[in-house]
């Protein structure tokens, strides 16, 4: 499992814009207290409630899936 901690400076929230999603398992986004914000979907957008968020992904180990990409911006 891969977990990435995303942090922005100041009082901004974090905007996650998923542009490509082809995974066997869900990509899950958590707030700074490890509460689930939601599961990513292709062409979806999530706004974290603070300036800290965690993105968690577990590879299924299948070559047919190409993974995911997202743009992360202060919001």
Automatic annotation (TrEMBL):
This is CUB domain-containing protein. It comes from Caenorhabditis japonica.
